[in-house]
Amino acid sequence: MPGSDSRTALERFIRWVMRDTLYLAQYECEVQGQAEDYTLDLLPADERIRGTGLSNVPIRHGLPGVTVRVPVGASVLLGFEGGDPRSPFASLWDPDSIDAIEFNGGKSPVARVGDTATVAFPPLVTITGVGTLGAAPFTFSGCQGAIVSPGVAVIETGAKRAKA
Amino acid sequence: MNARDALERLIRWVMRDSIYLAAHPAVVVTDHGDAVSVSIESGPLAGALPRVPVLSGLAGGTATAVEPGTRCLVRFEAGDPSRPRVVAWGFDRDSAVVHLDRGGRSIARVGDVVRMPAGPSLPVTGTLVGMMTVQPPPPSPPVPTPIPPGTTFTGTMALPPSLYGTIVSGARKVTA
Which chain A positions have a beta carbon within 8 Å of B88's beta carbon? Predict the structure, then answer.
């Protein structure tokens, strides 16, 4: 039907004109690797943008000052800044896709209620007390004692709604 | 201009608002606390956007403070140019302070210092070892004598007002 052909041709033309809208969407990808600067090598699941995959893709995070280390095989969404295929970014993860969450790039594990701390005592402490020698009680004062093991403390209080 | 070019231009004009469906790279100019003023770096929307609300990637009262120059992504709710929102962030060290659950205290890490109130004295029990001095009836002089094994005592030990230590265990995957 001629009218149908015209319509199909017009639709194809419009799709061609609007072809860059492909890069307004976000696409599921598998992480193939992560560099020291946190950028990712990604393999999109969608054949239209897969090619041979994308390298050195920066991550955009839901919080400023926070970044992540993720394992190979992690799942993330791929988007394009400004709809520009030359500016890919990764954002939004599957829940299990994490090796480490780093605040401000720090490497020290955060402490939580129940974690432990060691407390150092002075090298020598002065002890006063009473004792029993055989059956005979005795008193002493001003004795110098050494505590050879550090004290161990347990963190008992912490944030109510921030957990790690 | 031929008919094809004219049609292409018409279609692009009709669909011109599709640019507001994209995420646009920007940098923070000023943090106002409840919003940030940003500058979109490039593209057809390049320019300043004042007081853009920030949507958090975490639910539940997460507040942030960011330094000027921090990179971010701006999206427009429902593709509406009048409703820009900051939706994601680039990572820059020392660019932000995060308040989880709007908390105001710094999170402690392994290696951080702890202080334990201690002095002036602490009850103690133990076993005495070493030498003691036995005082026979005068006029005999004191006699140094080994303390018999198993000699126990109770008492107090004098301590400074505070003892200090370090945190030695923490989360496996969350670092700061």
Answer: 60-62, 89, 91
